[in-house]
Amino acid sequence: MPLRGQRHRAFMLCELDLSKSLSKSAAAPRLKALESRLRLLQYAVQEANVPIVICLEGWNGCGRGEVIKKLSELLDPRLYQVDRGRPPSPFELRYHFLWRYQLTLPRRGEMVIFDHSWYARVLEDRCGRLVKKKLWRLAYSQINEFEHWLVDDGTVLIKFWLHISRKEQRCRFRAFRKDPLLRWKVTKEYWRQHRRYNRWLKAAEEMIARCGTAYAPWTLIAAEDPHWARVRALETVVARMEGALQFQLPELKPGDKKNGKPESRFRSSRKRGPEPRVAEEPAEAETGA
């Protein structure tokens, strides 16, 4: 559900229907249909020179990594990159908190997926009391201005909040601890967020209310069922990419997937420069007798 700007009201996220689910058999054909469509759209937005920014926010253990994994399986790796959320370095702390994200913005026709983004300022920094209150309160208007600038410049900005209940988060943490391959995920920071769930909930609700604008709306996803969350996220990405195109996207033919990139379909009318000359291999130097 896309959420546009509105005044903050209590228990907004608690009103989200977390019972939405999708069986694996029902999700498979929808994901299959999205697979070819998403790849075709990726080449189309490249030809149209449209940059795509995806911000994935949500609780620890909510399934952001699974959404990124599915996107990574479907996208051409030459045209996107993933920026993993991390604390700023001492060098980055010398600059405005948005500076390091500006360095990672995509070039025209490419995509960047932020696993945690500039919203760390009003989530981690606020809930962990890493900065003064006046700084994170000021960040709302700064973020809105930054996102307005991105959209005005032609960027398609897609923002997700993946929501799970406190009970579900605890169940997932316990399941991770029992699995030797997933045990590494559950850190002290994860349990710290779980203990402060209500504090984070208040911060997330205010963030969504104050930074959900007409030009950069939020999409809230009930993420307790992983199949539903993945399909809903991918369908949203496809819909937003289709909306960014200024021409009709051709229907995908059965043989297109095997033929690779459909360059002929999106060939631009812009005049291209002359083909670069290929340097000839130099002759071997003669040696004296």
Write out key terms for the chains shown:
single chain; 289 residues; alpha/beta; Rossmann fold; 6-stranded mixed beta sheet; 9 helices; 6 strands; 11% strand
Question: Please, could you describe this protein's structure?
Answer:
The structure is a single chain. This protein has 289 residues and is α/β, with parallel strands linked by helices. It has a single domain, classed as 3-Layer(aba) Sandwich (Rossmann fold), CATH 3.40.50.300. Helices cover 41% and strands 11% of the residues. It contains nine helices and six strands, in the order E-H-E-H-E-H-E-H-H-E-H-H-H-E-H. The chain has helices at residues 24-47, 64-74, 99-102, 124-127, 133-152, 166-178, 188-195, 197-211, 226-244, and strands at residues 2-3, 52-58, 80-84, 111-115, 156-163, 218-222. It has a six-stranded mixed beta sheet with strand order 1-6-5-2-4-3, with helices on both faces. Helix 3 (99-102) links the parallel strand 3 (80-84) and strand 4. Helix 1 (24-47) packs parallel to helix 9 and helix 2 packs across helix 9. The longest helix has 24 residues, at 24-47. The termini are far apart. Mean pLDDT is 85; it is low at 5-11 and 262-273.
